Amino acid sequence: MIIDIRDILRAVTIDQMKDVYIVQCLMETDLYKLLKTQRLSNDHICYFLYQILRGLKYIHSANVLHRDLKPSNLLLNTTCDLKICDFGLARVADPDHDHTGFLTEYVATRWYRAPEIMLNSKGYTKSIDIWSVGCILAEMLSNRPIFPGKHYLDQLNHILGVLGSPSQEDLDCIINEKARSYLQSLPFKPKVPWVKLFPNADPKALDLLDKMLTFNPHKRIGVEEALAHPYLEQYYDPADEPVAEKPFRFDCELDDLPKETLKRLIFEETILFKQRLNQEHSTNSNNTSAMAT
Q: Is 83 helix (H, G, I), strand (E, B) or coil?
């Protein structure tokens, strides 16, 4: 579901701490490498998609946006277990926050960005992650990225070339006037039928894809609704889809803190982690002892 931290290794004191090693469970490969070497069956696509959405449900229930979902951030093992990793760009979900810093060009991740990220500096929601999952689903169906834009405008042109020109209602959700005017100035483009792009795909998969890759974020399907879609019915089990105990919050985002402040915060976090780990080990040992008696 989500990659877990098994241990954290560092020096004993903060003054000695030069490096921090995070120990995670071993995953043999990732979805990017897998798609480079083989075609996926519909059964594999369905199972992988369910695991992605199950993990995303947990992330979103914690009030967090992952913001960098892509095949290389989906780890796999030999039994087809999938875990979401790399929360380096994750942020608390706050539609009013200005995330302009996120708009720095990341060539490898541009292909999975929702159009509203490129068109607005703020105002986006959890639906940006759903768009990324839609791009990943399309890539699993064809073994190639669906929107491989070379730069900002080329990315938009790829999206519009498939989805067609946005309606006036869709344009109204774009806050940035220059971006809205640019889209209005473009010649009309019709939508390309999904079955034309993916003629061998399960029709239910294409229906879910259509609901994920919707230009207007307000009309895009949510993670819980996506999990309940008929395409995933063989796996859907709300009782086995964990959610966070409470929303995740930070008092501030940590992008621009001085090095020494970050070092202190990391050291303090490792102390808390060790305390939690010791408590878990103690609880597990007590439970094992109780069962033995």
A: strand
- Structural domain count of the chain: 1
| Per-residue confidence (pLDDT) for residue 92, from 0 to 100 | 87
**Residue 231 belongs to a domain with what CATH number?**
1.10.510.10
Q: Cα(293)–Cα(282) distance, rounded to whole angstroms?
A: 17
Per the structure, the complete domain to which residue 141 belongs is given by 28-256
Dig out the tokens for 42 from the structure: 């519909």
Decide which of 278 and 69 is more confident: 69
Output 172-175 pairs: Cβ under 8 A, ≥24 positions apart: 173/116, 173/216, 173/217, 173/218, 174/116, 174/119, 174/120, 175/119, 175/120, 175/122, 175/123
Count CB neighbours of 167 within 10 A: 11
Over residues 229-240, the mean pLDDT reads 97
CA 193 vs CA 9, 130, 153, 197, 214: distances in Å: 51, 20, 23, 7, 13
Which residues 6+ apart lie within 8 Å of 88 measured at CB?
68
Flag whether 3 is in a domain.
Answer: no
Residues 240 and 230: their CA atoms lie apart, in Å, by 17
What span, in angstroms and rounded, lies between the C-alpha atoms of 244 and 241? Answer: 10
Q: Is 68 a catalytic residue?
A: yes
Amino acid 288: pLDDT: 61
List, in sequence order, every residue forming a beta bridge with 8; answer none if it has no partner: 22
For residue 16, being part of any structural domain is answered with no
> What per-residue string of b and e applies to 250-266 under the rule 16 or more CB within 10 Å gives b?
eeeeeeeeeeeeebeee
94 is a domain residue: yes
pLDDT of res. 257: 81
Catalytic residue selected from 7, 19, 68, 94:
68
Rounded Cα distance between 245 and 96, Å, is 24
- What pLDDT, on a 0 to 100 scale, did the predictor assign at position 108? 45
